[in-house]
Amino acid sequence: MAAEIHSRPQSSRPVLLNKIEGHSHAVNAAVLIPKEDGVITVSEDRTIRVWLKRDSGQYWPSIYHTISSPCSCMSYHHDSRRIFIGQDNGAIVEFLLSEDFNKMNHVKTYPAHQNRVSDMVFSLESEWVVSTGHDKSVSWMCTQSGSMLGRHYFGSWASCLQYDNDTQHAFVGDYSGQITLLKLERQTYSTITTLKGHEGNTHTTGGSIGALWWDPVQRLLFSGASDHSVIMWDIGGRKGRTLLLQGHHERVQAVRYLQLTRQLVSCSADGGITVWNMDTPREEAPQWLDSDSCQKCEQPFFWNVKQMWDSKTIGLRQHHCRKCGKAVCGKCSSKRTTYPVMGFEFQVRVCDTCYDTIKDEDRTALATFHEGKHNIAFMDMDPSRGLMVTCGSDRVIKIWDMTQVVGCSIATGFSPR
Questions:
Q1: Which of 18, 273, 331, 356 has its CA 20 to 30 A from that of 195?
Q2: Closest-CA residue to 400 (of 376, 381, 384, 414)
Q3: Given pLDDT bands bounded at 50, 70 and 90, which one contains residue 91?
Q4: C-alpha dihedral (26, 29, 30, 33), degrees to nearest 10
């Protein structure tokens, strides 16, 4: 079922330890079992599988359970060994795993949505299961009674979710590129704010949110989207500060922030794995300015008919400098450069004036780039052991040793097998 790839790290990159195969359709979620050599997976093939590592070094399914509808997402709570499975038919199924992870028993089925469940979080503190779905809603249900407590509808599919246990705030990303912050109560809720930032970062239409991660300690929210970017939202700072991070070529579908090393790990649909250094001063990317003419040479843009007529010139196409945000023409922004302090790890357009202000040391990368060599639709990490698991539409689950990439301080006591 699985082959052991490497026994020890080779260099400062993710090292593939194991590759697990066996699912007949896309694997939508895979989570590492803390303190165990085990992985739980759910798939479009309607199976829930618990894979345990044997003495041979290979992973074999100790549990192989089939349910009525394709499995779309999962939430696993290790201390209570409770697992919640979202389904394509809108239902959520709860199971209780045995202590030896060789058996699981059905507990409840929750009628959470009218369509596919896209994401969910189980909160032991409130005894709620909060979920989002393709019926354009977020719902929260009581796990003690199994009853619906509340529901809120959006204008588009709700795609992903994060939840703060202490304050009962939910962050919901949707396919329009917005993130809505809700305060949930029993039987009621209130909308706190809507975060917008992914829609206008590229020339593509839309910026649907593919992944969210909430750090309750530093009160930072991270979002990855189809515009290939990641945004850090400083919720705790209460000043609306955001940092734009561009280091992927495809849709960002998984993000995870590591508190101890202050690093962010993000994964994209093309298999890209990017590790960002967040323990360094960074600059906010400016808002793009509007103008009818180039803010450098004052030549009119092509829609400025009056100035074109008056000056007897042909209008120019509008561009924007990524460093200062000014609207400029192609002639005044002929240079390209990286500018990692503002999150631009790839070369972007800057005006000639800003280009001259950027020094060579300003171009030093603040992220490292790695190749997962498969579609990554979901990722989970165990920072205490320096492990990461990835899975996706290619039906393959990969287990990685990340200790050489994200720092040894998070992996005290871990030695790769």
A1: 273
A2: 381
A3: very high
A4: -150
Query: Rounded to an integer, what distance in angstroms lies between the CA atom of residue 247 and that of residue 268?
Result: 10
* Nearest C-alpha neighbor of 70 from the set 130, 27, 109, 131: 27
pLDDT in tens, 43-84: 999 999 999 999 888 999 999 999 999 999 999 999 999 999
Contact 208, 177 (CB under 8 A): yes
Q: Which residue is it, tokens 């199971």?
A: 95
C-beta contacts of 189-197 below 8 A and 24+ residues apart: 189/150, 189/152, 191/152, 195/221, 195/223, 195/233, 197/223, 197/231, 197/233, 197/242, 197/244
The answer to whether the CB of 266 falls within 8 A of the CB of 257 is no
Measuring CA to CA, how many Å separate 275 from each of 97, 199, 365?
33, 23, 11
For residue 17, what are the CA distances in angstroms to 14, 20, 166, 284? Answer: 9, 10, 36, 37
Residue 225 neighbours by CB distance under 10 Å = 30
In 3D, which of 283, 302, 275 has the Cα closest to residue 381? 275
Place of tokens 């320096």: 386
What's the order of all strands across the beta sheet hosting 38-43? 27-32, 38-43, 47-53, 59-66
